[in-house]
């Protein structure tokens, strides 16, 4: 079952430390954890941490970014440990710690004190329970006394009831015999009527039904009526048989008419007798029930008297037994009478049934014989009942004598006997004692106590308080003693006692003076204490004491107080209080004056690790081989000169050595004035393992190492196989048995979906390159100036042009708007015109318009020729403008980079711890 280690990690200033990794490195193999297995947790923003740690030994390491790893110490987690903080587990003493003898003794003492405290608490509870039980016993005793007196009265009443019951049984027996005789007479009469009842069979049947109904109403108690009903049924059957012969004998029928009438009357009489018998039977049943109830009450009263007499006196025990035997004999007599009566009824019914099956002529004789037999049985039962009545009367007289001998009298301190009980709790009368309720309580408690004949008293025994008048072998408890003392002192005034003795002394005593002195010598002299006592009111369970004002007062005396007063020695008091075991245990307790590391035992002691280890370190000394230190404990080497690898030190520096022992031996060497520590172990007869420096790297973790020389206990990670049996912890990290080759490799955080230790080739993510040249306007450029000189064309190309005839014709005129006439002109004219204008000169209107001349001309003839000739062309020096314009260029990106993807780096060897 894991144990929760949780809390808030704080620095020296009390501030929470966040992002700190807490690692638990298993130092030993436990049932649930393998050695060197590491679990870790990281503190949150509030410095909170929580670890569900399996039981075992762990080395606690702390790692925080920006700080070197550190070892906080060792802890031991037990399956029974309660959840606590890491600080508490680190501060707790370890099982492997070398503790001083006084510390172990102190722990034993603390455990013993805890046990003693629990025992004392139980003793106190038992004492309180005993006090309550004693108080209840006192009340039960008062009730028991009252119940005893009541039981005696009840016994007397039971005896009287037994006498009445016996007489009633005698009377009932006689009545039963008379009923049986009456039934026999009825049966005889019915038989005679049946022989002559030929024509009146129906009336006889009705009479038989009436008798049968009366028999059913009589019930179980009307046994005599049952006989009558059976006889009537037989008569009815016989009448039915004779009814078949009625037709053959008319004369006999006439003679039978009168007889049938008489039979009907007799049937009515029989029914009346049956009803009367039923009433008698009911009365007898009620009397028998009352007798039985009285007998039961007598038995219960006798049983109650038995319980009271057993507590009162040995004589009462014998008388109780006699009364019980008397009741038993009375019950036996009653049972015999009932048995005889039942047998008589059964015999009568059997006889009636047999008679019905036979001929009618034999009915009367058999019924008479059966009735005679029943009569004899009834007489015998009556005689037995009379005998039982006589015996019951004798028993009654004997019980009455017993009751008379147990009749209570007034309570007295001078004579023996029973006292009358009273249920009053505020009476000052001295003639009564106790209450009946107390008797029942005492009896219930007595049933839980040891038997009187062989008492085996354990714990805190209690006993009921007997009345003061009892003088026998009952146990006298402290309450009885206190009551006896109080009764002796306050039962009668001292003056009256003195006067009575004085009167006796004056009766013709010649030595009056001597007698007087002798009488006074036996008196307690009066003093202040006795005077104070006489002024106190008497009350049960009280103890006198002097108050701070020197006044005598009364206080409650509990059952526990009475029990303590009754003890004769200190040992008895210790036993009574149940402190024997406590005192025996306290005898071996450490005295309170003792101290632990100068800390007194009178207050809570807080033990720190410094208290445990202070002064407990053993010095190693010179020339000591560490292979020989296999006893668990703390050792120290204070001289560097005493250390060497030849003596199996991990390095030539002083330090401390801790030796732990379990299945083997483990040594932890911590170098002086540094944080370096080394661990090695040895199991059975095997050799010591090499010293391995403690660090925060678990087995299997790749460790960057800045050298080609591998430290002891480590191996380069170059893909080589290793022995899984020799290095089981490394095999857990690398189940394949092969150490990964880390040369030229980097470690990548494992993404989801990828297996641990899976290999990935180098590469870059797929991407594209975009390339372009910037757009540039080169402007207008001019070519260089060049003079081509004068060039001459060739001399060819001589030709002529034909010229046609041109004839020009046209009309010139103008249009006058005033008279709508067009005027034309002829002759020579010149081409021209002006802007239209109009004006008035007096009554003359002048209007000028442009002249429109239309003409055409036809040309004819050939032009003149000049012959072949050449033309000189002067080109001259000049330049040409070239417009380049805005445009783009295609760019080709050349490949670049190293043979592999890499960043700036420093080469380290990866090593792994072998374990």
From TrEMBL:
Q: Which Pfam families match?
A: Collar, Phage_fiber_2, phage_tail_N
Q: Does the keyword Transmembrane apply?
A: no
Per the record, the domain of life is Bacteria
Q: Where is the region Disordered?
A: 117-171, 222-365, 406-432
Q: Which Gene3D superfamilies match?
A: Carboxypeptidase-like, regulatory domain (2.60.40.1120), Phage tail collar domain (3.90.1340.10)
Name the principal localization, coarsely classed.
virion
Q: Does the keyword NAD apply?
A: no
Bias (Low complexity) occurs at 129-167, 222-257, 291-313, 345-354
Phage tail collar domain residues? 700-747
* Regions of compositional bias (Basic and acidic residues) in chain numbering: 279-290
Occurrences of domain Lambda-like tail fibre protein N-terminal (ranges): 1-133
Which residues lie in Polar residues bias regions?
A: 258-269, 411-421
- GO annotation, biological process: symbiont entry into host cell; virion attachment to host cell
Write out the annotated subcellular location: Virion
Query: Which keywords accompany this UniProt record?
Result: Host-virus interaction
Q: What is this protein called?
A: Prophage tail fiber N-terminal domain-containing protein
Species of origin: Citrobacter braakii
């Amino acid at each position: 079952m894991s144990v929760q280690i949780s809390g808030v990690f704080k620095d020296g200033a009390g501030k929470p430390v966040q992002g700190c990794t807490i690692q638990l490195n298993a130092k030993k193999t436990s049932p649930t954890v393998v050695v060197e297995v590491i679990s870790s947790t990281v503190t949150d923003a509030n410095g909170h941490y929580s670890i569900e740690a399996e039981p075992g030994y762990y080395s606690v390491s702390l790692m925080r970014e920006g700080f070197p790893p550190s070892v906080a110490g060792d802890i031991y987690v037990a399956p029974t440990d309660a959840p606590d903080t890491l600080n508490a587990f680190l501060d707790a003493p370890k099982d492997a710690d070398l503790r001083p003898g006084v510390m172990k003794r102190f722990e034993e003492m603390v455990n013993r004190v805890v046990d003693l405290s629990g025992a004392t608490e139980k003793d106190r509870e038992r004492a309180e329970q005993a006090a309550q039980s004693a108080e209840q016993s006192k009340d039960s005793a008062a009730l028991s006394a009252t119940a005893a007196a009541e039981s005696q009265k009840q016994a007397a009443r039971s005896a009287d009831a037994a006498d009445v019951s016996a007489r009633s049984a005698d009377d009932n027996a006689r009545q039963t015999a008379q009923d049986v005789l009456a039934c026999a007479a009825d049966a005889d009469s019915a038989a005679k009527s049946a022989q002559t009842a030929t024509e009146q069979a129906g009336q006889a049947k009705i009479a038989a039904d009436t008798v049968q109904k009366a028999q059913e109403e009589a019930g179980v108690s009307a046994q005599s009526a049952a006989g009558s009903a059976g006889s009537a049924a037989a008569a009815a059957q016989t009448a039915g048989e004779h009814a078949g012969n009625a037709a053959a004998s008319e004369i006999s029928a006439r003679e039978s008419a009168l007889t049938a009438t008489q039979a009907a009357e007799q049937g009515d009489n029989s029914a009346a007798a049956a009803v009367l018998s039923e009433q008698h039977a009911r009365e007898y049943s009620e009397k028998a029930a009352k007798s039985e109830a009285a007998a039961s009450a007598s038995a219960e009263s006798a049983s109650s008297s038995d319980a009271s007499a057993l507590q009162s006196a040995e004589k009462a025990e014998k008388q109780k037994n006699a009364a019980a035997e008397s009741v038993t004999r009375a019950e036996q007599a009653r049972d015999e009478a009932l048995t005889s009566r039942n047998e008589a009824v059964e015999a009568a019914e059997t006889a009636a049934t047999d008679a019905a099956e036979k001929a009618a002529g034999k009915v009367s004789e058999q019924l008479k014989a059966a009735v005679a037999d029943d009569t004899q049985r009834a007489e015998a039962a009556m005689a037995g009942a009379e005998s039982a009545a006589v015996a019951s009367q004798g028993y009654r007289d004997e019980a009455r004598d017993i009751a008379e001998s147990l009749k209570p009298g007034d309570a007295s301190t001078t004579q023996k006997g029973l006292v009358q009980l009273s249920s009053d709790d505020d009476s000052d009368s001295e003639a009564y004692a106790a209450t009946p309720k107390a008797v029942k309580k005492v009896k219930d408690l007595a049933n839980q106590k040891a038997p009187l004949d062989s008492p085996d008293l354990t714990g805190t025994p209690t006993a009921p308080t007997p009345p003061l008048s009892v003088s026998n072998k009952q146990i006298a408890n402290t309450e009885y003693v206190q009551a006896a003392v109080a009764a002796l002192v306050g039962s009668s005034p001292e003056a009256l006692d003195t006067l009575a003795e004085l009167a006796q002394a004056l009766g013709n005593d010649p030595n009056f003076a001597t007698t007087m002195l002798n009488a006074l010598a036996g008196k307690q002299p009066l003093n202040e204490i006795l005077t104070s006592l006489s002024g106190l009111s008497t009350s049960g369970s009280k103890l006198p004491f002097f108050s701070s004002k020197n006044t005598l007062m009364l206080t409650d005396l509990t059952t526990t107080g009475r029990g303590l007063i009754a003890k004769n020695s200190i040992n008895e008091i210790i036993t009574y209080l149940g402190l024997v075991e406590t005192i025996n245990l306290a005898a071996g307790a450490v005295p309170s004056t003792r101290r632990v590391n100068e800390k007194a035992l009178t207050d809570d002691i807080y033990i720190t690790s410094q208290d445990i280890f202070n002064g407990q370190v053993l010095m190693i000394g010179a020339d000591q081989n560490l292979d020989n230190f296999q006893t668990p404990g703390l050792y120290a080497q204070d001289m560097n000169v005493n250390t060497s690898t030849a003596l199996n030190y991990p390095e030539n520096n002083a330090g401390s050595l801790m030796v732990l022992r379990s299945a083997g031996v483990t040594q932890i060497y911590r170098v002086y004035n540094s944080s370096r520590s080394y661990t090695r172990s040895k199991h059975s007869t095997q050799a010591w393992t090499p010293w391995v420096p403690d660090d925060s790297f678990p087995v299997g973790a790749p460790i960057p190492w800045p050298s080609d020389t591998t430290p002891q206990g480590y191996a380069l990670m170059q893909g080589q196989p290793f022995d899984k049996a020799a290095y089981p912890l490394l095999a857990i990290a690398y189940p394949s048995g092969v150490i990964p080759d880390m040369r030229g490799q980097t470690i990548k955080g494992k993404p989801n979906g990828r297996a641990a230790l899976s290999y990935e080739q180098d590469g870059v993510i797929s991407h594209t390159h975009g390339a372009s040249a910037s757009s540039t306007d080169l402007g207008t450029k001019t070519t260089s100036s060049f003079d081509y000189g004068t060039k001459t064309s060739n001399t060819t190309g001589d030709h002529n042009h034909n010229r046609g005839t041109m004839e020009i014709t046209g009309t010139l005129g103008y249009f006058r708007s005033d008279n709508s006439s067009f005027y034309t002109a002829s002759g020579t004219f010149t081409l021209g015109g002006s802007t239209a204008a109009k004006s008035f000169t007096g009554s003359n209107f002048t209007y000028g318009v442009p002249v429109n001349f239309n003409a055409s001309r036809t040309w004819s003839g050939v032009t003149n020729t000049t012959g072949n000739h050449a033309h000189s062309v002067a080109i001259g020096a000049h330049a040409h403008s070239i417009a380049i314009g805005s445009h783009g260029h295609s760019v080709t990106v050349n490949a670049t980079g190293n043979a592999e993807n890499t960043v700036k780096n420093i080469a380290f060897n990866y090593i792994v711890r072998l374990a």
